[in-house]
Design brief:
Length: 66
């Protein structure tokens, strides 16, 4: 009984992150997302490490948790 579970929409080697309550403009986050999209995890973390924006530390911590 009950509602059936939705199928997973991501592949096994992909991840989806929903980030809430972060005080950063969507445009800035979109620029960063475009930089790290389609990169390997280690390369994405190195890109985030050498950027100057302060909010990127939050994104880096989030990527490490995945």
């Amino acid at each position: 009984m009950g509602k059936e579970k939705n199928k997973r929409r991501e592949l096994d080697n992909e991840a989806k992150v929903i980030l809430r309550n972060v005080r950063v403009s969507p445009q800035k986050l979109n620029l960063v997302a475009q930089m790290i999209r389609k990169q390997s995890a280690s390369k994405a973390l190195s890109i985030l490490q050498f950027q100057k924006e302060g909010f990127l530390m939050t994104l880096k911590r989030l990527c490490v948790l995945l």
